[in-house]
Amino acid sequence: MQPTPQCNLNFTQPITSWDEALPLGNGLMGALIWGTGNPLRFSLDRVDLWDRRRHPNLDHPDYTFAHLRSLVKEGKQKEIDRFFEAPYLSPTPTKLPAGRLEFRMGEDLQVRNTLDIGRAEASVYLSGPAGEIRVDSFCHAVTGTGFIRISGLDQEMEPDYSVLNPQFNFNQGKRQDGIEVDSVATSPLKVLTYPAPEIQDSGSLRYYIQEISSSFRYGIFTKLEWSGEDWLIVYRIVSSDDSDDLTAYAEGLLDQAIASGYDSAFVDHREWWRTYWEKSAVRLPDPLFEKNWYLAQYFLGSASRKGFYPMPLQGVWTADDGNLPPWKGDYHHDLNTQFAYSCYLKANHREEGESFLDFLWDLQPKAREFARRFYGAEKGSSLPSMMTLDGEDLSGWVMYAYSLTSQIWLSQLFERHAVMTGDEDFLRNRAYPYMKDAAEFVLSMTEENNEGQYVLPLSAAPEIHDNGPEAWLTPNTNYDLALMRWLFDRLAEHARTIAPLEETRWRDIHEKLPPLAVTDSGVLMLSPDEELKESHRHFSQLMAVHPLRLLNYSYNEDKRIIDASILDLERLGSGMWVGFSFTWMSQLYAIAKNGEGAAFQLELFWRHTCSPNGFHLNGDFRNSGICTWHYRPFTLEANLFAADALQEMLLYSEKGEMELFPALPERFRKEITFEGFLAEGGVTVGARMEDGKITKLDLVPSRSVIVKLRGWTALKHLAHTIPGRITEMGDYAVIEMAP
Question: 476: cis peptide before it, omega within 30°?
């Protein structure tokens, strides 16, 4: 079902900031369209543009976990900062912006901007004394080329535009050493020194080529042609990873695009997006919720494609403000990548999610090598928690950059994909081996305490106490422990069918893990001897509630713990939260079947921490008073996690059980629909509620599966629409289905 027009972006004023721009993307390349018309900017990005130069500390023989552990034991925090955290303060490695196209359309223009997300096409209307100029654009979903059509100029009025390179420091290519940069406020691009670019800024073919290192160059290439009715500009970002001869390679692609023309090329592009939108849909009574769900799916389809690198922090829209991207535009595995790839399964966009899983799988040799080299692990694999697109270490706050359990969280994405899709081959050949490698790594790093329980040598909880010495908490933190308990429980469960001889081993290990630390009142603690005492952005102590779902709200004791832990967050308040915190809180309320709370948190998130174009800017940048962070660094993960929270309000699917509309606010019960959602076992689900009654239920299995459906009493009237054998068990129905 296509998005309705209310989901599009429509702005009647010029867009004056890059992070409020009209976003286009195709997984490899992205464009942000903004400006007054003098200029009209296309800020361009490509997902794999990096300066990979490493800080020398990373290759020092003492740069090891063993040395870090000894410094922690000796209380030498300053030495930890100097030696282990210094690399992250270095300008490189870092994601790089590609550059921009700038069109000079005239003075004193009235500007309207629209983005049709159903078609993934942007239009800018520029009106002045000489008439109206219209600029249409799309990033081709199949070929990867960018198209720009300018109408309203005749053949004698060739568009006035330039291809602009980022303003690096062109100091004969001499690297400036000793520079430190802030990872959030960042620093100007001029802290990066490269040779001056090769530029051709006139004629039909215009481009620049920037050398980053002796082994890597990239450039923006454009071609201009009069089509007979309007002007066509096509563009590509190409690099030495594509070809040694950038100019010849790019010109060949651009000639193909020119030959096809705008309208003809748009046919295949439009078909790709039509197919994408047919996978799932929602119709919601609140336009804010419906629009932002569709925007999140649009961001996913634009920024993550199978066969390309997965979304880093800013997807394919690296900041174009003259500075380095916040947090290096890297891959953060202590929340960001996991949240970014949280909603694709239930939304039934499997291939877009597989981009990340394929990426992680291909990095397994690198993960095994890093586990040996840095950690000294005898077995298993572990990626750095903050890393480049090559899987290389970036350092950072060491408690989290070198977490011993972040690899488990990555393995959960594999397991969840297997369970939701019902893909037994994927479970056997990818998910289980990936989980097992994570387990072998963790086991090689754990020790037994006096009670015979497994404990980690160092333990922390993102990002409690920031990077101070007090951030080293008493092992095991509930963050680390929940991940370990989840891993060995799921390994044992899957071993029953995949590797029966290994089941006992995993269960025995699980039995030797300590229980979660809980206060007498039922609140999940940070660690065995510390409670959360202040508002904090990262609910790491609640991993067992979500996303790991170790606790089940249907069980009395688990319900007591979940309710008490939510109440504790309410007591501490949202003062130190950021955007993703509100989306996480929405997930918790959905688990507790509090639809009003879940919806309210999403409304706070979208209204106060998201830009007019939908981009999550982390802070309360409008100064609305919902938290004390008032900055605006753009990252994508919370947009996708918010969409997932909304999906959780509409469909519960965990451990073989399913429930329709488990956490709706009262105003949603009048009329609400979802279609094409994916539930566990590869079952596609659609449902509609009218006046509080479920009036439609579609279940389409992709394989033989058994589903335990909650709320059967209110669904009996739809039994004739359900394929398969139904066995009633009170308010449950056990449904056996086959494709």
Answer: yes
